[in-house]
Design a protein that fits this description.
The protein has helices at 2-5, 7-35, 39-56, 68-81, 83-102, 114-130, 145-162, 168-183, 212-244, 250-266, 276-285, 291-307, 309-312, 317-331, 339-344, 347-363, 366-386, 418-421, 449-463, 476-489, and strands spanning 64-65, 273-274, 390-397, 407-416, 436-446, 468-472. It is α/β, with parallel strands linked by helices. The chain has a 4-stranded mixed β-sheet. Strands 1-2 form a two-stranded antiparallel sheet. Helix 18 (418-421) links the parallel strand 4 and strand 5 (436-446). The termini are far apart.
Length: 493
């Protein structure tokens, strides 16, 4: 690997891994609480996910670990049925992700519009910031927290302008921790978030009955784990592609996430997926670009919580809050809300972005936001394209040469599908047209059964008045679709 032969790049990857490991600790502890499990399950999940995805994943430098989205999904199982059923759910979810990856589900990412991606990114930035509020707002927050967070923000903003040799997040953690220790200030620390493990994770198998009842219990949650995990991971991978100007293997990332969750389940972890906040720390704040940083983040996490637990437990949360606030600021797409951009952007695109943001932030679930945004975008697109089709009268002919106009030609323009073809049937003069009507489709394209049914309805209306219809100009694809669907729909019977 090129990074191993470049000391400067290797140092960047190592330092990035250390910074991410420090940032993973309080997140993993918090997500364990959300899921209703021992904090060790979240920490072990973060270690196994990061190390495994670094090897099998399709997006170098992306961080996968225990996440809030997965914690919310598995919480009902763990709280209602215990850890063994949680582990079984994670294992089944991992198997589903492998199957989805091999079936090419990742290719569906191409159907996610740009403004949904922008809404996804902005919602993530807002959620990252909101997640820091419990450390800043409340009656029990010491006053010293605020100047320490402010100091951390100054370091995060100012240090990269002076040098990038050392990651700003690591300097922020070291400075705030050192000042707190020297001055003897009391403030919330990483240790206050939960107990850190003192031993390595061991291989476990869930002690659940292998019955149909068990499958019926865990399958819906496992499917949600698989779907939410893939959605967040693939969206994050695309975001990293944009940040780094590189391309990733989405199919490999999909089944790689499955393998990582299977490994995590076998070591008693709570499952996980890609983490946008830590990934942005890795690729933007720390400038990491290879799998080394991802693997070392997991390895350092394990070494820190097991080997240096007492030291890590003393890290002030104020330092990590400062780091995450700057990650939030850097993640948000400020250009998307600039007045000039809003004036130039069609209102429908802005609505798609806002819906994605509102639903994501309101539900605290990225999957809900993205799915809603995609559906709204498709409706907007269908509505817009539906107005692009039109019918015009182009000719009237005396075919028999008897001085009577007995043929009219209509030409149809635009894309014909369910949204645009519904009104097609009302664009013809059934009573006033001559005995023979020609419909020229050379300027259009037939996309679905709704259009074929509409053409059949037009022919039927003319036939009821004793008039014939000839359809011409179908391109090869439209003709094939028309012929295939005409037989299936019983057109002409």
């Amino acid at each position: 690997m090129a990074a191993l032969r470049d000391p400067r790049r290797l140092r960047t990857e190592v330092m990035a891994g250390l910074v991410v490991a420090l940032a993973l600790i309080p997140e993993a502890l918090s997500f364990s609480i959300i899921a209703g499990v021992d904090p060790r399950l979240g920490l072990f999940a973060s270690f196994t996910m990061a190390c495994t995805i670094a090897i099998v994943g399709g997006r170098p430098a992306m961080i996968s670990a225990a996440t809030g989205a997965i914690a919310l999904v598995v919480a009902p199982i763990s709280r209602g049925h215990g850890v063994d059923y949680l582990i079984a759910t994670v294992l089944l979810g991992g198997l589903m992700q492998v199957a989805m990856g091999l079936l090419g589900v990742a290719k569906l990412m191409r159907f996610i519009p740009r403004m949904v991606m922008v809404g996804f990114v902005n919602a993530l930035a807002i959620l990252i910031f909101i997640a820091q509020l419990p450390q800043l707002v409340g009656p029990n927050i010491p006053w010293i927290v605020y100047p320490m967070v402010a100091l951390g923000l100054v370091i995060m903003v100012g240090l990269p302008r002076i040098t990038t040799a050392v990651p700003a997040p690591l300097v922020t953690i070291a400075v705030v921790m050192g000042l707190a220790h020297v001055a003897g200030w009391t403030m919330p620390t990483v240790g206050d978030q939960g107990e850190l493990p003192t031993s390595l994770p061991s291989l476990v198998l869930p002690t659940v009955p292998f019955t149909l009842e068990t499958l019926e219990l865990i399958a819906p949650t496992a499917f949600a784990v698989a779907l939410v995990g893939l959605l967040e991971s693939l969206m994050t991978a695309k975001l990293v592609d944009d940040v780094t100007d590189t391309h990733s293997n989405k199919s490999r990332e999909a089944w790689g996430q499955g393998i990582a969750n299977i490994v995590t389940g076998l070591f008693g972890g709570m499952g996980g997926c890609a983490m946008i906040g830590q990934t942005m720390i890795n690729v933007k704040a720390s400038r990491a670009r290879t799998r080394i940083s991802t693997f070392l983040a997991g390895l350092f996490l394990l070494l820190l919580v097991v080997g240096a637990g007492p030291l890590v437990a003393r890290i002030p949360m104020a330092a990590l809050v400062a780091v995450m606030i700057m990650v939030s600021v850097g993640t948000f797409d400020w250009h998307s809300i600039h007045p000039a951009t809003l004036r130039m952007m069609p209102w429908s695109e802005t609505i798609v972005m806002l819906v994605t943001v509102v639903v994501t932030v309101g539900t605290n679930n990225l999957a809900y936001g993205v799915i809603t945004g995609v559906n709204v975008a498709f409706v907007v697109f269908a509505r817009r394209v539906a107005h692009f089709s039109r019918v015009e009268k182009v000719d009237e002919r005396d075919v028999d040469g008897d001085g009577v106009l007995d043929q009219r030609v209509y030409r149809v323009h635009g894309e014909l599908f369910f949204a645009s073809s519904n009104d097609l049937v009302y664009q013809f003069d059934y009573a006033g047209d001559p005995a023979h009507v020609v419909i020229d489709l050379s300027g259009s394209h037939v996309w679905d059964a709704s259009t074929v049914a509409a053409l059949d309805a037009i022919q039927s209306k003319y036939a009821s008045k004793g008039k014939s219809v000839e359809i011409i100009g179908l391109n090869e694809a439209s003709a094939a679709r028309h012929g295939q669907l005409t037989g299936r729909l019983g057109v002409g019977d």
